[in-house]
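Researcher: Please generate the 3D structure of the following complex. Treat every line as part of one assembly.
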Amino acid sequence: MPVLEVKDLKVSVGDREILKGVSFSLERGRIHALMGPNGSGKSTLAFALAGHPDYRITGGRIILNGEDITALPPHERARKGLFLGFQYPPEVEGVRLREFLRLAAMECREPFCEFQKLYQDALDRLRMKYLGDRELNVGFSGGEKKRAELLQMLVLRPKVALLDEPDSGVDVDGLRVIAARIEEAARQGTAVLLITHYPRLLEFLPLKKVFVLRDGRIIKEDGPELAWEIERAGYEAVR
Ligand SMILES: Nc1ncnc2c1ncn2[C@@H]1O[C@H](COP(=O)(O)OP(=O)(O)OP(=O)(O)O)[C@@H](O)[C@H]1O
Ligand SMILES: [Mg+2]
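Model: Done. Output below.
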């Protein structure tokens, strides 16, 4: 059984329909890529799955672990194991990264001692020990913000991780670190949906499937070679 099933999802922002019937599923412990031109609706899909109130679901269903979560508020989806790593992580003044994650981990019923261990390990493996006591994303560089999103994934150990462009603006060494951490999460059972424009990150990752979103619909689903075809020939060539 897939861990996440999205069935004929239709989503509007304001009075404009952005997603026009999107269906796909994610498997436990596998990495799936979602690609598509700018403005095709990738982030809209991620926000709608996470329950962002501006992204109105007008049709279809979201099934997490066999349970219909389409009408649940964001924090309940998160508690049930859905995680979103933002394309543009917000800066939150007055809230330290460690404190934010400690509270989030408690919501996910992670005992404090386990949290301490996971947090320290994750900081270390993402090479961001020096950021642990800073306010959440405040003044972080672009690459540091992306690593802070992955830190949250490693500590919260979600069932499904939607990662919206974790590679954008990341340097070449950072890409390897990020790829290794995504693979680690998948090895521990997380189903990953990796939104990306480039196959570079995919070089380092065992990919199960690539979905292509265009004009609010998934127009193709295929193996990892599809990412390289897109790199070579662009979206116009995807049939
Ligand atoms: N909050 C919003 N208000 C108005 N329009 C929005 C909003 N969010 C998304 N849209 C519109 O929905 C369409 C899809 O945007 P979305 O951010 O989902 O694209 P994307 O595929 O993630 O693009 P990119 O690759 O550039 O990140 C765009 O035309 C965008 O302007
Ligand atoms: Mg986007």
